[in-house]
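Final report, closing paragraph on structural work. Over the funding period we assembled a curated collection of sequence-structure pairs, and we close with a single example.
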Amino acid sequence: VQLQASGGGPVQAGGSLRLSCAASARTESTNRMGWFRQAPGKEREFVAGIVWSGNVYYADSVKGRFTISRDNAKTTVYLQMDSLNSEDTAVYYCAAGPSKSDYFHSRKDAYAFWGQGTLVTVSS
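Its predicted structure, as stored:
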């Protein structure tokens, strides 16, 4: 399955952005979907995930500010980002995986497919 992320761009601190990630097909490969990000000089980190059951998970750094959701067909996942700050500046990657489990949703190796990334730049 191919993933296409979009919605990134420049935004001022305190502002909002909505990222989208569309899968090329609904397969078992999209049972779980998530967002990761990588800031310059840092490792890629988990941001948010939504699993087969519909449960959602967030990194502590974005709880209360970001919201992950998906469409009923489970082919598109969204990341609504509010109250952005400079520490949110990064390339954001969407990911998908076949597992129906809630476990390991924050691990990169739990996802088999990755999008190309979309850059979010927050200016103060």
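The CA atoms of residues 15 and 83 lie 6 Å apart. The mean pLDDT is 95. We thank the funder for supporting this effort.
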